[in-house]
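Notes from the pairing session

We agreed to fold both candidates in a single pass and log them together. This is the raw record for the first candidate, unedited. Please don't reformat it; downstream parsing expects exactly this layout.

Candidate A
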Amino acid sequence: MSRPDTALAEALAAGTPIPRDAEGPVFAEPWQAQAFALVVALQNRGVFSADEWAQALGAEIREALANGGCRDGSDYYERWCEALEQLLIEKGLASQTSVDARAAAWERAAEATPHGKPILLENDPLR
């Protein structure tokens, strides 16, 4: 019996360069695991179906590749996050304005955070 996250990864990976090993998906950074877990949790709660997710992720990967994205899969989780943002916008759960505002807040927080310290939205000087 395969682990649930492995089965999900196999279903989502159909034809995509998902970073993985024999046990399932692998993550180079903690945020990648968090993004993966967020999608799994939202899908498990019925926010979107596996089909909707596969369509969104596939579209994002195709668009990125058409625009010079990494063919080796090294930007896979960036595509994952972009697909999630677009799906949430399409479902009316977020707006492009709110997504852009949150991204800008994280960028300001990152710039204001001393090296080696965790980046927190509370560090955004405009907050």
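Candidate B (folded immediately after A)
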Amino acid sequence: MKFILNRYKFFLLLSIILIIILIFNNNLGINVFNNAKSSFLQMLAVLPPIMLLLGLIDEWVSRESMMKYMGEDSSILGIILSIALAAFAAGPMYAAFPFTAVLINKGVKFSNIIIFMNSWCVIKISTLLFEISSLGYKFTLYRLLIDFVGVIAMGYLIDYIVNKMPKKKKSCKF
């Protein structure tokens, strides 16, 4: 029982807050509930196909080939594949996290994982098409060039910070 309470403590806390809001301001509470329900239903519509695709990728693509093309020795090919995988992806950002878990399990280089996640956010083709129609091709091209440089730089910077910098010794002072 304690495990269940600990695991779902944020959900339980937010449910209690929602009940309190419903008691004190019924209209606001109903709006909050409807928004939460809508987000939950949207997530349920997106996640099953993604999980199915991830299962297929996990079975069909071997760890050796992922390490060959996106692993420690992948260089520019790993960067290109990371950006391409994310650019052609569909779905919200929370859909990238299961993909990221598969990439980690397949031995993909950490900088390529960060590049993949950043690219998922800013270099999606579906978003680019909308942006071109709304803001123009010049703006989109300039933003895209800056994003390519930024995504790659951030991938290597985060990789350096996490893996290469000397670890500080942790001490607890009470």
